[in-house]
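User: I'm designing a mutation panel for Cell shape-determining protein MreB and want to avoid disrupting the core. Could you give me a predicted structure to guide residue selection? Please restate the sequence first so the numbering is unambiguous.

Assistant: Good idea. Sequence first, for numbering, then the predicted structure tokens:
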Amino acid sequence: MFFRKKIGIDLGTVNTIVYVEKEGIVLNEPTVVAYSIEDKKILAVGNDAREMLGRTPGSIIATRPMKEGVIADYTTTSAMITYFFKKALKGSILWPEVMISIPGGASQVEKRAVVAACKQAGASNVYLIEEPLAAAIGAKIPISQASGHMIVNLGGGTTEIAVISLGQLVVYKTVRVAGTKLDEAIIHHLRKNHNIIVGERTSEDIKIKIGNAFIEEKKEPKKMEIKGRDFQSGLPKIFEVDEVSINEAITKPLKLILEGIKEVLSQTPPELAADIVDKGIVLSGGTSLLTNVDRYITYYTGVSSFVVDEPLFCVIRGVGMAIENLDSFKEAIR
């Protein structure tokens, strides 16, 4: 008897996480590919390629093939999925069954691109599950009940906001603003206000260490020393930045996410809205680890919100549960 392996993939803009049936999460690597310009040969994927970001010579490009949650570079994505299959299945790709998460508002073209990339990488059947549903399943929310649950999945490329009832998305919105936009905002702010240029990796470090969505007046602000390049002289420079300045930098993208949440709440049927006020807003995804993001959302919406345990693995846990129990989650799968 021949058993096909079942694999779940959370193909994110920043990280790709792979789940293998009966083994759990086997791989969590950056969604980065490095290839040579001349022959388009893939040189590195994942962790090795991330080390090269912003450090490559002219003949090599290190890039993120996913932009805002969808495939921006088809060939590179397909090669990357093949690499992740091989690594997760320890070399043997025997036509696995694959379930992959997609943004709630993905177009037909975007969905077809994901399916085609997986098929090209060696998958037999490809199932698609919408990210907010996968996140809700992973957060152990009883989605099949006739009551409203609101989940906000703050990822790297997109923020998925959805109200779920009876196993379906009732109202949803994909805001194409999330972790990477916060990084870009920090880069822009430092260049404009402090005349210092930093790269992607440094801005991500700043966000993780001293990024704060909601600053309390009483506390002493955290500070951090950063290394970059002086915008005017072009020389390397060491500079100290504090969380108040970084909070100022990320205000604009955070407001866009907040507007998306308010829009979804305003379109929610009143009975479901009442359920959400009772239960609160569930936050998942890597960007929900940003300090005080739950307090920020609570303060501006008036609805209590909380971050789930291990928010980074929420979507992949949901994808894993759905592929291991395909029959129970038939409605959720495309």
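For picking mutation sites, this is relevant: The chain has three domains: 6-133+315-332, 139-177+250-311, 179-249. The chain is about 35% helix and 25% strand.
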